[in-house]
Amino acid sequence: MGMSGDHDGNVVAVEIYSSETGVWIHRNNGWGCIIRTLDIWRSVFFKGMLHLITMDDVVAVVDVEGNSWRTIPMPETFVDPYYGVDDGFIDVSQDCLCFVNTDRDDLYKLSVWVLEDYSSDQWTLKHTVSHLHLFGTDKQHFGYDDKVVSIHPKRNIIFLVSLNDGIFISYEMDSREVHYICELGDILTRHYLPYVPLYSESLANEARREGIPPPDDNLTDDLLVEVLSRVPYKTLCGLKCVCWRWRRVISHPDSDHRLPRYHLHGAIAGFFDHYAAPSSSTPRSTSFPVVNHATRQWVVLPESARSDKRQIAYLGFDPAVSSSHFHVFELVEKNPANADGEADDGELDATINALEIYSSETGVWSHKDIGWGHQIGVLDDWRSVFFNGMLHLITMGYVVAVVDVEGNSWRTIPMPQTLDDPDCNVDDGFVDLSQGRLYFVNTDRYDLYNSLSVWVLQDYSSDQWTLKHTVSHLHLFGRRRKDFGHDY
């Protein structure tokens, strides 16, 4: 529907297009009063009628033929209709027309009204909530500092966004719980089209009656899984809402090994104590705990041969291979600290001369002398990543040290030239896995305190890193001089 207005902004006519006839029809204003609107205001289509918020303290209603016209007085949610009416929000929830605006007695509260009897003009106050409860500040003005995006069609849930910082939240009226959803960023110019899952076969059945099969009808479950296996995990979760069949196929245990699953190594590493020092007063009788989020199981590893010394260990886990089996790599230092922080014999020496490797399949530790061919030193808080069945570990020797789960294959990959002085900042490097490739992040070699470089090992069999991206600290943090690893 298109609104035609005069020079004062009053709606004088409505142009209505029908997809059935393919033509526009003209209808003069049949509301019997002056109606004014702004193009940014919310409308909702309900019971074959367009419902439109207006500047005149009414909801203007017209049918698709332009034959039935009605105005519904807005609920009294404010003292001055010109102060808050343009910020009202109208929607349909649980088969009733709903209206949201500032509370009539408190500018910094929100009121939700419902038209329970559609044939009447009597709104019922359903709920009231303060902006302090929603956004943590009591000086929010609805429509200027925040706005409603949608009301859930089947539940008492409102979706809102803060216009100041782009925070998108949901609010459950029954429990009064606020849930953070995401940060939308620049939202001042955005318009929203709510999407709600429809678990109904009625549309599909109607299409079948018309002789139009659903697009995926010709796909077997096996082919459907093959298609769905190519989408990211987060997208896959959303696709469960398409229809009952897709939900069944995605959730079926037989699809587990073929569809993308949440990458668990980061979550498990968060519950893996990779550093342990023995107590001087109480002997340690346990070893490293490992928790698996997927199976909700945890295990305490048996003591290794180095349980009386400071221990630095890293987890090796690949959910694509197994959701339950893992390895733990314990670094054996040449002369590590004891419970008192001192070496038992002479000077402290953090050089790695062996590995203890634990396998969850065998349940035992195996000892392996290092095979890197030269001395390797690490600090206990440095980053590692498990990739291609190998542990990749940042070292003090300006290389990424690599070893497999059996302790049979050893390799060193020279770090990319991100620094003029390799001993200056190497301990602040970061290694990780992205898009099936090894990545390394550190300060830019030509701009030590002002820029960050991201490198990728395109060919894993080579030692040649490719510079993927460079970004300034000024762009990241709003200030020029920052030291990677120390300031952030």
UniProtKB/TrEMBL annotation:
This is Os05g0175800 protein. Residues 219-259 form the F-box domain. PANTHER family: F-BOX PROTEIN INTERACTION DOMAIN PROTEIN-RELATED, OS05G0139200 PROTEIN. The lineage of its organism: Eukaryota, Viridiplantae, Streptophyta, Embryophyta, Tracheophyta. SUPFAM superfamilies: F-box domain (SSF81383), Galactose oxidase, central domain (SSF50965). SMART domains: FBOX.
